[in-house]
């Protein structure tokens, strides 16, 4: 158990390189750390003693000097590597050689890391082989960096170097800089924080903090294990918690030794369980999400009973999980920052496990937050008296007051207890989960001469809005002119934001001179108070979906040439002009170009409709334009088609109805004929079947694509997997994604070859060499499609249907005659029952009637693709496999946490714990809207969601091992769960209540809510899916799919969809 130790006279005056050398001499067998021999933990662990680590340090010190010489002025040397024990040898060796070590996060964008290197005058990088792609990205931008690959840990460990002395006295060396970590960068570019020997001496002295009678200190001394002990941590070395765990604890504590997991395996509950089975671990230091995953497993609670404590940071435990764990072990929520380190605490009563109590001997204040009622900001203080107890004195010398920007809530009864509440930072999270930092754009706009302030809002909304503050003497007449004048600057600034975060012309509010922005004492805008002051204007903007503040004369006008006749040419130019004003980047759009394919999503289409109606109502007073909605644009999505529709209405006062089922099936059959024209029979019969050794996949970087690639690479029979993607960063994204799901292996990843392609170009735009390689594969998997339910069929023609024909041509012309596996959709046959009457079960057979497609562009396009493939099979003899995928669920393993974006360009947050399931926007919209309406729709769809890891394995198995001529698979879960189970999960697991009503009644209720004006569209996001949901009638819950073929190739079966699994997949969606 834990014990507080007597203070050693050495505490607070030790230099880490010396202290390690002392351990190597006095207690050579003292355990430094334990590391796994292999990814398979059953192979055992290697215990690294202090003597071993001192030898590794001496080797690296001499190696560094040999490579670049020693430093006499603490030159900055950067290290980028995987999270293994080499960091300890490199860091301590560099300090012995006179350097200070910069530890940038490999998951930072290249420009961020180069900025850190520039700020610290760093021109040399040491790196491990595994992060070579990261280093190459840096060199592409700055080829002046000197980059040196370090030896493997095995080579370092097996070395036998001469001792490399480090004989400085603490008094002389205490202010020498030794390491540079960086801030999180949550509010801007990360800042380097330089630390000295004295910084870590503060931790060493925390044993000396005065005791409070009857209380136990909770500070760095908790790591003083009586007689030694092992703890498991998952934090990487570039994180303060990881740096302390891997480099400081083994040296400066009373023998607490970290146990490290496989460096390229992301932390997860299953890995934690395996670690605890193979190691005698007495403590954990990790984010709560990892512990919660283990707790969800059968008998998971038993693993925690032998622990002395669980330290956690990076977020809170869920109340239910925390309560369970607090009954079997001690939970220690730690709080700290790179700048100030951990704030010393007192251990509260067990029932207050979720709260923190600061050590009263530490200088801090909890100051009421000016922009959050009931919240307090933690403020730390430094002065000469805190030199031996506060890292602030050394990390930020000269700073006497440090405002952490972290907010806390006070316990309602025990006023000495505090609970972390959030950040005072500026990050905006849109309703779809997209995060962005508005500050760079705000600063750019504030630089305009007549603008005194700019503020972007949109927390929880579907899009962002810009508030502009002008000079006090500005007149109302100048507001509109200002917006027009400043628009080019806003367009430029928009490039700093994600697509849905960009500012539209009609999403701008100019402040009232009588209501200036609220500012803090130092002149900065107080975001929340200013937003609150303009709440009514903001709500009105979102509710109406239109905003001023665009000059009225910026929209084109429309007048009949000879009353009441409107010419189609004039209407077309009017529509073109409206688009050009709202979306300048589409100024050169062609008459037949599809609007959706040019990048306009459903949100932007709503904006276009509002702009059109403004002018149409002026040109034709009294006419009802309510019919002009997203459905009208959906079916008339080119300039020419929309102009003809408007001309017909303006001249005849009638809205021309479409041709119904016949009209849509005619368009579908036309596309089938277009993309099968000219297909020819093969010149020679196909060779006999052999298991595929060479596989190509088009679309490897998405959610499903990652799991398919991981499964293919794991198969011994597969020699090469060619990954074809439209982007140039596919290799880094795939590597990162495979790490995040625990399927990355450096050895197998060598089998993956990445090629850039252009779907709608002949031969996919491949070079002769790449085309030659692709022509020799055994199987091609086509997994590249736009998952958008709100765009029409023609929006999928290019590049997806045209790309399919290009793939078929490659297959047909290849001597190898590869088979083609197409990832289709159940939506391709979603209207089966409507076409076939009483036959409600969808068979695993080819489509004969395109009318079975769900009447939406996505389903229709997949149906057209299936028909094209059938013709290609019949004409060219190409073996074809079609997988009709339903809703894809999350992973059954739910492998998550801190390391997933390490080589990263994926953009997922490192602390994301969404059980690996990206937000499914249609489902999230239904949940959010139901919450607002207080009502749930019933019978929407069967919950036959197949886990993504199961589906990935299935696709790989079929692609490699199955001999099929024309194979059809309905890839849905064989055990259908009711929609009601999902609703009950929302009620019981997430406490979302509401009545249950039919889908049509629910849609009517939503429409009434919109018409009432009491809700804005952000509260009712399902509005944009209304056309799609109306297509479902009373719901498709009774639809069933024959999945016999699927069951036959799913070797390990499919996990049942229990409420717990559904809750795990949904738990981090923002309801």
UniProtKB/TrEMBL annotation:
AMP-dependent synthetase/ligase domain sequence ranges: 82-341
Keywords carried by this UniProt record: Phosphopantetheine, Phosphoprotein
Boundaries of every Thioester reductase (TE) domain copy: 699-951
Statement: the UniProt record of this protein carries the keyword Phosphoprotein: yes
Taxonomy, superkingdom: Eukaryota
Pfam families: AMP-binding, AMP-binding_C_3, NAD_binding_4
Protein's UniProt keywords contain NAD: no
PROSITE patterns in UniProt: AMP_BINDING
PANTHER family attached to this UniProt entry: ENZYME, PUTATIVE (JCVI)-RELATED, PHENYLACETATE-COENZYME A LIGASE
Protein name, entry field: Acetyl-CoA synthetase-like protein
Natural source organism: Melanomma pulvis-pyrius CBS 109.77
